[in-house]
Amino acid sequence: MRLFIAFWPDQHTRERMQAIQQAYTGGGRPVRPENFHLTVAFLGQVEKQRVPALQTMMQAIRIPRTELQLDRLAWFRRSQVFWLGCRWTPPPVLAAVQDLTQRLAQAGFSTDQRSWQAHVSLYRKMRNTPEIIDPEPVIWPLKPWVLVASETRPEGVEYRIIHRPPVD
Questions:
Q1: How confident is the model at residue 152 (pLDDT cuts 50, 70, 90)?
Q2: So what's the pLDDT on residue 168?
Q3: Which among 37, 72, 103, 163 is annotated as catalytic?
Q4: Which of 14, 103, 119, 163 is catalytic?
């Protein structure tokens, strides 16, 4: 299974992100709004028998009740991704992400060694630098992260949440 751990937006947050996405046209492939998410850790191919350990690990780390302010648009030139993200990420969220990353590494999962940057991809394959205007901030009330399976299909990528830790 191709898996990743992510924060998943509620419908209101998703609609606000979609409005920002729709303000930018003329290049790239738009990410379908139902696929908007904020990746915490990309795990790649994982054997099915390792999923219960991942679920336990995810539940062991408490995500503080907080919110993210998505207030920055940017473009990753190399990967050609146009994204919406945070100028500032609350320290408790960063600490939870770092804790998870360390636990994943200790359990033998390969993890990205770059520092984590909270962002949501709006467009892929955007070859030219878009004209970037500061967006109206999107306030995203965070809920616990989820474990997601990614499947590539002829019509595009499909994400399926396979584990959602209980909310306190």
A1: confident
A2: 61
A3: 37
A4: 119
